Amino acid sequence: VPLQASGGGLVQPGGSLRLSCVASGFSFADYAIGWFRQAPGKEREGVACLSASGFSKDYADSVKGRFTASRDNARNTAYLQMGSLKPEDTAVYYCAARPYTGWGTPCIDMDYWGKGTQVTVSS
To answer: How far apart are the first and last CA of the chain?
Structure first.
């Protein structure tokens, strides 16, 4: 499995979680990493997109100011720090990777996907 996401769980509204995504079998540092989520009955949506270096980051409007994506290329690991969680953040969260082709590489047409991790925000 090229990517493995973990760290999900049940959290109360306003709480925090940190998701991790461990990569193997490809040159992690040459890939953009995207975080996505899919709630029951809804289409999958992009949450964050991280450049190969981690310097450039894009976020969905719904999570700006609350979520922070980062990566440690030495550990082949990406992270999604989620704060001020809301019930509407409840979803299965996935990480995915695609080759980084330069500034502005969008997180679309991803090459590798990991199994998701469930995040449930509820009191």
So the answer is: 34
Specify whether the CB–CB gap between 5 and 19 falls below 8 A. yes
As a whole number of angstroms, the distance between CA 28 and CA 98 comes to 9
In this predicted model, what pLDDT tens digit does every residue of 82-115 receive, in sequence order? 999 999 999 999 999 999 998 888 999 999 999 9
What amino acid occupies position 99?
Answer: P
Q: Alpha-carbon distance 67 to 84, whole Å?
A: 8
63 contacts: CB under 8 Å, gap ≥ 6: 47, 48, 82, 89
The DSSP secondary-structure symbol of 44 reads -
The predicted-structure confidence for 9-47, as pLDDT tens digits, reads as follows: 999 999 999 999 999 999 999 999 999 999 999 999 999
30 phi and psi angles, rounded to 5 deg:
-100, 10
Beta carbons within 8 Å of 56's beta carbon, 6+ residues apart = 50, 103, 104
Give the sign of the dihedral formed by CA 43, CA 7, CA 109, CA 100. positive
Distance between CA 106 and CA 60 in Å, rounded? 13
